Here is the input.
Amino acid sequence: MTRERAGKRSYTRTDRKRGRYIKARPAGDRPEDIAFDATLRAAAPYQSQRHADAANDLALQLRKGDLQRKVRVRRTGNLILFVVDASWSMAASERMEATKGAIFSLLIDAYQRRDQVGLIVFQRDRARLVLPPTSSVELAQRALQDLPVGGKTPLSSGLFLAWQVLENARRRDS
Here is the structure.
């Protein structure tokens, strides 16, 4: 699965048999999800030669090299992952309130857009995934009710956990 472009809405090419058919490619060793229209167009120029060479009276003769598979694209949601420093040094209580507001406003229209929002908080000596990626406002309200602030700033732990969450989401969606 590969992204076409970055931005507000993402269109993703997919190898699954879901999504809108946009073009065809030679099937090669993967003769699945065959694009019949493109296969017929690929075989058409060779029909007179194949009829002359063949001993049968088939109206249409296809070869393995004529097979074309569908390339599909589908709309996918974006994962917005907040990684917030909740230590005292960063005036964390005001930032937490701003983060909660941003998460709730994103989740309100997340269902239609297929978006997900998550929150990682790092403080004291570790990072915690407070809100796993979700599109549920109710789940976010429960998870974000009471967020403690204070302690040191374990930045590397927060960034590493963010990488793990994003990598898991990428693997799940591919």
Observations:
- Residues 155-173 form the longest helix (19 residues).
- Confidence is low (pLDDT under 50) at residues 1-7.
- The helical segments are 36-43, 47-53, 92-108, 110-113, 137-143, 155-173.
- Residues 2-75 form one domain.
